[in-house]
Write a structure and sequence with these properties.
By secondary structure, the chain is of the alpha/beta class. It is built from 14 helices and 17 strands. Strand 16 (387-389) and strand 17 form a beta hairpin. Bound molecules: pyridoxal-5'-phosphate (PLP).
Length: 436
Amino acid sequence: MKPEATFPQLQSEFDRSESGVRYYCRHMPAVFSRARNARVWDETGRAYIDFLSACGSLNYGHNHPALKSRLLEYLSCDGVLASLDLHTSTKREFLTAFRELILAPRGLDYRIQFTGPTGTNAVEAALKLARKVTGRRTVVAFTNAFHGMTLGSMSVSGRRGEPSSGHILPDGVTRLPYEGYFGAGIAELDRYAAMVDDPTGGEEPPAAIILETVQGEGGLNVASEHWLRHVAILAEKLGALLIVDDIQAGCGRTGSFFSFERAGIAPDIVCLSKSLSGTGLPLSVLLIAPQHDKWLPGEHNGTFRGNNLAFASASAAFGFWRDKEFLSAVRKSSQYIRAWLSNTSEKFGPVTLKPKGTGFMCGLEFARADIAERVCRECQARDVLIETSGPSGEVVKVMPPLTIEPELLEEGLGRLDEAIVSVLLNSPDVGEPVAA
Ligand SMILES: *Cc1c(COP(=O)(O)O)cnc(C)c1O
């Protein structure tokens, strides 16, 4: 018998068959098989605490009982699963629930476009529509932005890829500093607007300004309400559409359904995806201010725009947003996380680690990326699923489901605390200042 036949586990099916592009599994090599709310189990029965929530696509946890029973009911009645953009009763249920439970209570009015199932497809559709509506070419995007991995989305993202790795260099993108980027504020916005106004300023009027109100992958940078309102006013003044990419920060991640509610702005276009279905099923939409819905039939098409199973669970999830118990539990847990982050930062010294983010979209910034990386590995050794973000990965993201049980949240944060202690004790050189 060949040795590899005796030890088939030495080379996993994943190593043998799956493309080298795989990423998260390299840090978390367990083979997961079951999950409930913030608990995940691997094949051997080992239990983990989920502080990753599939990057914010499981805001209501894994297999939420109310959502799961809606899915099972739908399947057991032979509900239509795929429908392109044909009318289905589930799609009508989704549209009505979204309008009545989410938009109307917030005084918002949008047309809904079902795009392809990924977030990045919603971003592509938003960029196309803004160009079509305005007849302009350039788009303003911000430093440290992340908008997805297709060509248009990559060009408005901040990461400067190498052409040799297939990266398309930004074309028709004007980059501005996000609030707080090396001290940037509204002066930089105003200077840009003045350049557009000036016939010899060299800047063409933009079709759109695209931004995240909290930059998820960019390191949990939170834009102030004042700055966001200023961007909205500026977009209007320039005749550009304001696109808020709420793919990660939306669907409750920051504490309210939309991340921009705190600023009292109404973007021209909103991209939603990740937690929209509530169950991890792929579903993406654009919300379009009615006057900008200039699409001709079929102008942005896609096969998988009719994920009816996702419509069913999404419609059920919208109901959570008027459930007082749900809302107060989310508020309590996010206050608990906030307090934990500031205590931890004080305990270890604010130069060593600094709280980032808001609501359930938060974390800790370390002085260097390798320290954050080691903290994540120590967490993983303690069975906590967690990841980094930020320009070089210097921010440890704390992103449990909004529905995590308070005891499990406490337990998970306790393990994160142990992980930090273990890394800092073994790293006498960590006390360097965190970059502003
Ligand atoms: C995840 C994400 C995207 C891309 O969504 P995909 O479904 O991965 O294509 C776009 N924008 C933001 C802010 C995201 O977090």
